[in-house]
Amino acid sequence: xxxxxxxxxxxxxxxxxxxxxxxxxxxxxxxxxxxxxxxxxxxxxxxxxxxxxxxxxxxxxxxxxxxxxxxxxxxxxxxxxxxxxxxxxxxxxxxxxxxxxxxxxxxxxxxxxxxxxxxxxxxxxxxxxxxxxxxxxxxxxxxxxxxxxxxxxxxxxxxxxxxxxxxxxxxxxxxxxxxxxxxxxxxxxxxxxxxxxxxxxxxxxxxxxxxxxxxxxxxxxxxxxxxxxxxxxxxxxxxxxxxxxxxxxxxxxxxxxxxxxxxxxxxxxxxxxxxxxxxxxxxxxxxxxxxxxxxxxxxxxxxx
Length: 304
Description:
By secondary structure, this protein is an alpha/beta fold. The chain has helices at residues 10-35, 64-73, 87-92, 115-131, 150-170, 200-210, 221-227, 231-238, 264-273, 291-302; strands at 51-54, 78-80, 96-99, 136-139, 174-178, 215-220, 242-247, 279-282. A six-stranded parallel β-sheet has the order 1-8-7-6-5-4. Strands 2-3 form a two-stranded parallel ribbon. The longest helix is centred in the first third of the chain and has 26 residues, at 10-35. The chain is globular and about 50 Å long.
């Protein structure tokens, strides 16, 4: 303890310890209360106003043989983020593919050395999307690199996407650019320090420069909240350029419940009231012990 710091009495130390313990118990109690609100196993979403999907990687290591039929049972219309080998099983259960993966978020078009690889990966993904009647293929900027400034990196990205857009347009598939947060460094999938496209307004500007009806924004409410905030107004302002939506709570990329700061009932109502007709994809990392109950809760909340 520094010499100029006040000494805490035994009573102060006890009060601090008790306060910390009470806060921890309150958080645990709130989490249990949220988990108790999960719908019963026979719940099935209506899909009336919101077309829902789920990002499968979030539920690893749950076997796909378990997750796929469970998603169909609760009324999801599609899935994404799983290997192509599972697409036939998804089809058996009436599930579509909402998004096909391309080149990954680390090595992207911000560096022209990656352009050939990204072109190959995106064209393969577009072919897969056509085969499985999937509307979208994801793309990323890649990580910022030493020696490539902001203006040059932006130019590299825009020129690359312009080069692949004719193939996307010809096949009636949209490329959706995902904006990712660079602030959260606590987990490899909660944030991506160094990501070039970490400002949603910058991503929108690049999309506008590409100037194609098949180049859209993947609007991830979690990443936008972490980096920019004001998510509902930003959603409405960005709407003409939005081609895909991801959800997750913040902080922590957990459930869409009252343990986090985002008011998802209001957010989803705004989506339902808009003319957005794409997928709303659950992409949070479950914290509940029963992960399928967690997913039913998120799906029910978004079924407005």
